[in-house]
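Quick note —
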Amino acid sequence: MANKDEKQTKKQATKAPKKDEQKQPKKTAKVSQEDKLKAQIKDLKQQLADKDDKYLRAEAEIQNMTNRFNKERAQILKYDGQDLAKSVLPVLDNLKRALTIKVQDENGKQLKKGIQMVHDHLLHALTEHGITEIKADGKPFDPTLHQAVQTVPVKKGQKPDTVVQVLQAGYQLKDRVLRPAMVVVAQ
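Predicted structure written out below.
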């Protein structure tokens, strides 16, 4: 009987720890699953924060691109017609030269009057589109507006570094120089 009691005690002893062991894995499993869910929630929150950050950056980039595009478009519109104006300037120069010719007869006067009208209309059209002649005669020499092709000694009543003669008129479109004025400068 002692043998039987020992066997039963052993069975109970082996059974008792198994019950405890079975309870612990369930707790560990619950804790483990809970930790996994918390980690998953934390990961999802991080992913959401990353997506929000990417979204805000993308939206800011789109707004920057839009602003840049609008500035470039305004710049293009501001100087629209620049190439055409550069092509027309020699025509204006030739009309000015034609107007310097002295005429005596009535036919010559009529022709000069017609040239003057064409010159005036062309000048008016250019002015309407923001193209103006650079005033140079008697002004201080400015290398951004004038191109010095010759220098002469300073005469009485002249200031040094002053434009004394304009050989070819210069023009600008709004604030951009299309062609600098070719000038003679006193030095």
